[in-house]
Amino acid sequence: MKLHYSAGSPFVRKVSVVALHHGISLDRVSTNPHVSPPDLLVDNPLSKVPALVLDDGMTLPDSALICEYLDSIGTAAKLFPAAGAARWEALRLAALAEGIMTAAVLRRGLSTQPPEEARATAIARQKAAVFRTLDQLENEALPTAFNIGVVGLVCALGYLDFRFGDDDWRAGHPKLAAFFAAQSKNVFFAQTVPQG
After folding, report:
1. pLDDT tens readout for residues 60-97
2. Looking at residue 8, which CATH number applies to its domain?
3. What's the pLDDT tens digit per position in 105-134?
4. Which of 12, 58, 107, 166 could cysteine-pair with 54, CB 3.0–4.6 Å?
5. Contact, 131 vs 72, CB < 8 A?
6. Is 79 within the bounds of a domain?
């Protein structure tokens, strides 16, 4: 299977962690989606990474979809619980983590553009969305089981460190900080620290 990836993407990191968890080897193709390279557009017209090309030629254009596919074919413990409260708790946390990543990536993209009032407002809005979500998660019980929600949240928090280290998200979020520190010891997260 071929994976279009960018080393700094938290969405790619999430897929990489799931693949490592299941011992699935992926042929990684470094891709800059911002320049819409033709080989990426053939596999994903949305010009987004990650994009996974299966051995039969089918393409999966989204990290959540790719993670669920890899979990479905993997032989290690499932990261997507099959049913009941555990499933919905994992998917809910995964969705919140996805929202943090989306807002942070959008904020990062906006911050590279020339300054203007509308851009500053959009950046502030994305930052506020991230911190509101962190505040909410700080006041909830964090999962102890390794699941897709944990994978997403660690990747989201890692991306905040990678791109917005001056924000100090740990201040006011000691429970999340302890959770992140403990989870970061997992070899799958240690091997996928964002770069670039």
Report:
1. 999 999 999 999 999 999 999 999 999 999 999 999 99
2. 3.40.30.10
3. 999 999 988 888 888 999 999 999 999 999
4. 58
5. no
6. no
Largest CA distance in the chain: 50
- Are both 56 and 100 inside the same structural domain? no
Q: Would 9 be classed as within a structural domain?
A: yes
Q: Distance between CA atoms of 81 and 146, rounded to whole angstroms?
A: 10
Q: Which of 42, 73, 104 is where one domain is finished?
A: 73
CA 85 to chain centroid, in Å, comes to 23
Given a contact cutoff of 8 angstroms between Cβ atoms, the answer to whether 193 and 22 are in contact is: no
Q: 9: helix, coil or strand? A: coil
Q: What is the mean pLDDT of residues 27-34?
A: 94
- Residue 105, CB-side half-sphere exposure with 13 Å CA sphere: 19
Question: CA-based angle 153:77:26, to the nearest 5?
Answer: 75
User: Are residue 91 and residue 168 in the same domain, yes or no?
Assistant: yes
DSSP labels, 119-173? HHHHHHHHHHHHHHHHHHHHTSPPP-S--HHHHHHHHHHHHHHHH-GGG-TTTT-
User: 146 Cβ partners below 8 Å, 6+ apart?
Assistant: 21, 77, 79, 186
Residue 90's CATH number: 1.20.1050.10
**Which amino acid type is present at position 13?**
R
Structural domain span for residue 36:
2-73
Q: Count of domains in the chain?
A: 2
